[in-house]
Amino acid sequence: MAKVFYESDVQREYLKDKTIAVIGYGSQGHAHALNLHDSGHRVLVGLHSESKSWKKAVGDGLTVKTVPEAVAAADVVMVLIPDPAQGRVYRESIEPHLKKGHTLMFAHGFNIHFRQIQPPPWIDVSMIAPKSPGHRMRELFTEGVGVPALLAIHQDFTGKATGTALAYAQGVGCTRAGVIQTTFKEETETDLFGEQAVLCGGVSTLIKKGFQTLVDAGYQPEVAYFECLHEMKLIVDLIYVGGLSYMRYSVSDTAEYGDYTRGPQVLDSGVDAKMKQVLEGVQSGEFAREWLAENESGLPRMKQFRETESKLLIEQVGKQLREMMQWLAAANQKREKKLAAQ
């Protein structure tokens, strides 16, 4: 079983009188910086001088510096900018200002595992990866609870890497829920695989193919949308609360029996082999090389994917149907207002 750390495992002294530089102020960056600040830690936000987030971070009551300035003034540096940009920013603005015995942290292992960043041996390198979008992480923190996280140690030069990482995890609220010990390799490869084969790639492709099957068979697109996309949230919410067994307990016996007997017909043993191919592409670094090259060339394929997907019938029908759902409009307005106030 995995080792899990909680509040009782934390010694705040590891971050006592330390300055933490949070590099980036996006979804994760704003949550980490504000949670740490509210936990009583000394926090700097590191941004490039023309960042649109600079004014927002200052408005949130945080001290903002350029990335080199923030790193030079910090004892702990958490890198929370997009994966493709991390290698360049690290080489240009972070590495020259690191000090012996200090801590370099990440919330995803991509750049360390695939060696886009190769830290000097005289610092600690660790990871605290909250398992939640940043805005939800911040929201739950303000409510007095936290989200689970993963912890990994890449380098322990000082012998204090784990203690420092746990103190950081407490500062962002994750030890309230539990922090699971892992490795940079395990976190990176499972995260990429899960996104590609199940959570994003798998689910979205299954939805699109189910929708198109019904439309091609002559059913109304609006009805197909409800059955293959809209109701997905209802099922996922049940799974989220109590796993597959609770979902099956909550749906009709007809739906449960169809789950057992027809699901494996759609996702048969051939899917196992294809999932293994996806995993092998992650493990070998093939996907990482492809993704980094895509960024270096200006995202031509990504832009084409976005344009093509936006024109799909399921997206057009969905946009019209969601306008009928007043509760969605109200929820979106409430969320946008809350985010603007943060």
Describe the protein in words.
With about 350 residues, the chain is an alpha/beta fold. The chain has helices at about 25-40, 55-60, 65-75, 85-95, 110-115, 135-140, 160-170, 185-200, 200-215, 220-230, 230-250, 255-265, 270-285, 285-295, 300-310, 315-320, 325-340; strands at about 5, 20-25, 40-45, 65, 75-80, 105, 125-130, 150-155, 180. It has a 9-stranded mixed beta sheet. Helix 1 (about 25-40) runs parallel beside helix 6, helix 8 runs parallel beside helix 9 and helix 8 crosses helix 13 (about 270-285). The longest helix has 19 residues, at about 230-250.
Brief sketch in words of this structure:
The protein has helices at residues 27-38, 53-59, 67-73, 83-94, 110-113, 134-142, 161-171, 184-199, 201-216, 221-230, 232-250, 253-266, 269-283, 286-296, 300-310, 313-322, 326-341; strands at 4-5, 19-23, 42-47, 63-66, 76-79, 103-106, 124-130, 149-155, 179-181.
